[in-house]
Amino acid sequence: MTRDIQPADIHHRDIQHIDDDECRRFQSSIELVGRRWSSAILLAMARGADRFSEIVAVVPGLSDRLLSVRMKELERAGLVEREVIASTPVRVRYLLTARGSDLMRSLQPLVDWGQRWEEPVGQQERDSA
Asked: What is the pLDDT of residue 119?
Protein backbone atom coordinates (compact mmCIF):
# COMPACT_ATOMS: atom_id res chain seq x y z
CA MET A 1 0.00 0.00 0.00
CA THR A 2 1.32 3.45 -0.87
CA ARG A 3 0.86 6.51 1.26
CA ASP A 4 0.66 10.13 0.31
CA ILE A 5 3.77 12.15 1.03
CA GLN A 6 2.97 15.09 3.22
CA PRO A 7 4.93 18.36 2.91
CA ALA A 8 6.38 17.79 6.39
CA ASP A 9 7.82 14.44 5.22
CA ILE A 10 10.07 16.20 2.74
CA HIS A 11 12.07 17.82 5.52
CA HIS A 12 12.74 14.47 7.17
CA ARG A 13 13.94 12.64 4.09
CA ASP A 14 17.43 12.80 2.65
CA ILE A 15 16.88 14.59 -0.66
CA GLN A 16 19.92 14.88 -2.88
CA HIS A 17 20.71 18.45 -3.87
CA ILE A 18 20.83 19.35 -7.57
CA ASP A 19 23.67 21.73 -8.17
CA ASP A 20 23.47 24.57 -10.71
CA ASP A 21 25.75 22.90 -13.25
CA GLU A 22 23.84 19.60 -13.15
CA CYS A 23 20.53 21.44 -13.53
CA ARG A 24 21.84 23.52 -16.45
CA ARG A 25 23.26 20.49 -18.28
CA PHE A 26 20.09 18.46 -17.79
CA GLN A 27 17.87 21.30 -18.99
CA SER A 28 20.10 21.92 -22.00
CA SER A 29 19.95 18.22 -22.93
CA ILE A 30 16.16 18.11 -22.63
CA GLU A 31 15.79 21.25 -24.73
CA LEU A 32 18.07 19.85 -27.44
CA VAL A 33 16.17 16.59 -27.89
CA GLY A 34 12.86 18.32 -27.25
CA ARG A 35 13.10 20.62 -30.25
CA ARG A 36 10.54 19.71 -32.84
CA TRP A 37 11.78 16.83 -35.01
CA SER A 38 15.22 16.50 -33.37
CA SER A 39 14.43 13.26 -31.55
CA ALA A 40 12.67 11.78 -34.57
CA ILE A 41 15.68 12.61 -36.76
CA LEU A 42 18.06 10.98 -34.29
CA LEU A 43 15.79 7.93 -34.05
CA ALA A 44 15.70 7.61 -37.85
CA MET A 45 19.48 7.80 -37.95
CA ALA A 46 19.84 5.25 -35.15
CA ARG A 47 17.67 2.92 -37.24
CA GLY A 48 19.92 3.25 -40.29
CA ALA A 49 18.83 6.30 -42.28
CA ASP A 50 21.98 8.16 -43.25
CA ARG A 51 21.02 10.15 -46.34
CA PHE A 52 19.03 13.38 -46.30
CA SER A 53 16.31 11.91 -48.54
CA GLU A 54 16.05 8.77 -46.37
CA ILE A 55 15.56 10.79 -43.20
CA VAL A 56 12.85 12.95 -44.82
CA ALA A 57 11.16 9.79 -46.12
CA VAL A 58 10.99 7.99 -42.77
CA VAL A 59 9.99 10.93 -40.55
CA PRO A 60 6.35 11.78 -41.36
CA GLY A 61 5.70 15.50 -41.77
CA LEU A 62 9.35 16.58 -41.76
CA SER A 63 10.15 19.16 -44.46
CA ASP A 64 13.47 19.47 -46.29
CA ARG A 65 13.96 22.98 -44.91
CA LEU A 66 13.40 21.99 -41.31
CA LEU A 67 15.60 18.89 -41.65
CA SER A 68 18.39 21.12 -42.94
CA VAL A 69 18.03 23.47 -39.95
CA ARG A 70 17.91 20.62 -37.42
CA MET A 71 20.86 18.78 -38.95
CA LYS A 72 23.00 21.92 -38.59
CA GLU A 73 21.94 22.20 -34.92
CA LEU A 74 22.67 18.52 -34.29
CA GLU A 75 26.08 18.90 -35.96
CA ARG A 76 26.91 21.92 -33.78
CA ALA A 77 25.87 19.92 -30.71
CA GLY A 78 28.31 17.17 -31.72
CA LEU A 79 25.59 14.52 -32.15
CA VAL A 80 25.78 14.17 -35.92
CA GLU A 81 28.60 14.41 -38.41
CA ARG A 82 28.32 15.14 -42.10
CA GLU A 83 30.42 13.07 -44.46
CA VAL A 84 30.87 14.18 -48.07
CA ILE A 85 31.57 11.28 -50.42
CA ALA A 86 33.49 12.30 -53.53
CA SER A 87 31.58 10.72 -56.37
CA THR A 88 29.55 11.82 -59.34
CA PRO A 89 27.19 13.16 -58.21
CA VAL A 90 28.62 14.08 -54.80
CA ARG A 91 26.88 12.19 -52.00
CA VAL A 92 26.44 13.25 -48.41
CA ARG A 93 25.90 10.91 -45.49
CA TYR A 94 24.97 11.85 -41.96
CA LEU A 95 26.24 9.69 -39.13
CA LEU A 96 25.64 9.66 -35.41
CA THR A 97 28.80 10.51 -33.52
CA ALA A 98 29.78 8.55 -30.41
CA ARG A 99 28.03 11.27 -28.44
CA GLY A 100 24.88 10.92 -30.57
CA SER A 101 24.90 7.12 -30.26
CA ASP A 102 25.27 7.43 -26.50
CA LEU A 103 22.32 9.81 -26.40
CA MET A 104 20.18 7.38 -28.39
CA ARG A 105 21.04 4.57 -25.97
CA SER A 106 19.84 6.88 -23.20
CA LEU A 107 16.63 7.72 -25.08
CA GLN A 108 15.74 4.12 -25.96
CA PRO A 109 13.83 3.62 -22.68
CA LEU A 110 11.75 6.69 -23.61
CA VAL A 111 11.05 5.19 -27.05
CA ASP A 112 9.96 1.98 -25.30
CA TRP A 113 7.78 3.94 -22.86
CA GLY A 114 6.10 5.72 -25.77
CA GLN A 115 5.32 2.38 -27.42
CA ARG A 116 3.69 1.13 -24.21
CA TRP A 117 1.80 4.23 -23.12
CA GLU A 118 1.22 6.68 -25.95
CA GLU A 119 -1.75 6.06 -28.21
CA PRO A 120 -1.27 6.24 -31.98
CA VAL A 121 -2.49 9.52 -33.52
CA GLY A 122 -5.39 7.82 -35.31
CA GLN A 123 -6.55 6.23 -32.05
CA GLN A 124 -6.61 9.62 -30.30
CA GLU A 125 -8.79 11.05 -33.08
CA ARG A 126 -11.23 8.10 -32.89
CA ASP A 127 -11.43 8.31 -29.10
CA SER A 128 -12.26 12.02 -29.15
CA ALA A 129 -15.03 11.63 -31.77
From this structure: 85
